Amino acid sequence: MAETLKTIKERRSCRNFKPDMVPKELLNKVLEAGTWAPTGMGMQSPIIIAVTNKELRDKLSKMNAEIMGSKTDPFYGAPVVLVVLADKNKPTHVYDGSLVMGNLMLAAADLGLGSCWIHRAKEEFESEEGKGILKALGIEGDYEGIGHCVLGYVAEPAKEPKERKASYVYYAE
Question: Average pLDDT of 156-170?
């Protein structure tokens, strides 16, 4: 437990990545951690699209930036984008996908990689362009975008964490 808690406490969102590609061996370990996230009734509603293709990565970045109303790279230069989607027909799909995102980010930190949860996947994959991407990848079904876990090597040290608020936990004894 000591190592798990240490990783949880030290993980930070990275907003400045080196351009170096994550080796497949490390990427596969992060992805494996995502597949072991708990899901409602074990239904495993999420899927993960591991995007290492620069052209598709840049297309997703552009789509995301347009939704955000920006021209900057919302993926902060990360070379890998792990898109988490979940089957809308499962009542716990948003929670399931969120747990996958958490596992991905913790595994990345444990392996010395930086990560950050980037929103707007829902809007991206509700669009015709997003649906076209899924179809081109051979993905069928009714999926909702949960988030993008951008991944790579950290370009600058993480900031110190904020103090935990005093009112975080209430005991009902």
Answer: 93
